[in-house]
Amino acid sequence: MRITIKSDKPIWKKNLYVLSIAVFIAGIAFSEIMPFLPLYIDTLGHFTHQQLNFWSGFIFSGVYFVSAIISPWWGKLADKKGRKLMILRASLGMALVLGSMGLVTNVWQLFFLRMLQGVFAGFVSNSNALIATETPKEKSGQALGTMASSFTAGNLLGPFLGGALASAFSYRVTFFITGGLLLISFLLSLFFVHEEGFKPITEKKLDKASGVIATLRSPTLIFGLLLTTLIIQAANNSINPIVSLYVKQLMSGHGNVVFVSGIIAALPGIATFLAASRFGALGDKIGTHKIIIGGFIGATILFFLTAFVHNTVQLGILRFLVGFTDACLFPQVQTLLTKNSPAAVTGRIFSWNQSAMYIGNIAGPLLGSFIAGISSYSMVFIVTAGIVVLNLILFNFNVVKNLSK
């Protein structure tokens, strides 16, 4: 089904306009439940401190566990059946699942729905794939940059909006609103996105990972970048399950914890949105890998300092600064993957990168919750700083050395 809008703009520009809006809305929907999810879990039973930390990490990770396994399969299916079909599958499926989270009565039901959310993942990645394949190569960087900015803008607005909605209404009503936002993304994609000239991939050799690897100039470099993505996500997401609980501790249980948590969760996204394109341009001049190394060094210092804050103002400042290091890391890793992957297999490489990202999203919350359970919230930040140092060492060994060859 399609609605045709009379316009002199080429199809790829129309798709870019519509999908950048849809991805912005999806970014809000995906991130607005994060500030209060651990607090919502706390309302679903009577949990000890350790049990609450365990369930927070477990439920954060559920969606990523399924997504990590199924993402390459969806990527292969998109190459054969079309990206628009995958966009519609993901947006409608997640609209229903996230809306249903407002109806759960126990923690196991919430965990099941988070797992089911992972089955329907892929809206943003397939939107990017559709834009990348239909946009002229000389315009692809600009187009994908627009998509990244739209999603980042939604992500940074989401936590603030989610905290405000949960404070004004309730946790459950906020889930219903989130499902409605994703339904809007589905309708925009259904009626206004037109996939033109799709050619399914039929080469048998590219059905297998070995065939993709054989086309790579430096497999060590590519897999080194995938490992870098995994550890970046693990480090960043080790913080997610405990941010609102850390805020609650710093505020000694007084004040609007949900609202403050939403603001603090949004601050890194604001900095990333402001800096990502600038760091990307700088990387083109001095070397993208140098930007990544700078990001590692900055993140190590900031995570370590966060362990010793005494109030939410100090926490907010450091989390805002972490957003600048985020702008140096994941977007720049994607840039290096693009520059070092043959065009014919870029889609498959990016699906592997997405799986690596999800694996990191699994490991991070579990690690953060475990450390918080046996030690303290401050120790989570200290251990995370150590993980970033390890990533810097591995990046130099696996990537930087191979870039110079």
From TrEMBL:
Keywords: Cell membrane, Membrane, Transmembrane, Transmembrane helix, Transport. The keyword Cell membrane applies. The keyword Ligase does not apply. GO terms for molecular function: transmembrane transporter activity. GO terms for cellular component: plasma membrane. It is a multi-pass membrane protein. It is found in: Cell membrane. Residues 15-403 form the Major facilitator superfamily (MFS) profile domain. It comes from the Bacteria. InterPro entries: MFS, MFS_dom, MFS_trans_sf, Tet-R_TetA/multi-R_MdtG-like. The chain crosses the membrane at residues 16-41, 53-74, 86-105, 143-161, 173-193, 214-235, 255-279, 291-310, 358-374, 380-400. This is Major facilitator superfamily permease. It comes from Lactobacillus johnsonii (strain CNCM I-12250 / La1 / NCC 533).
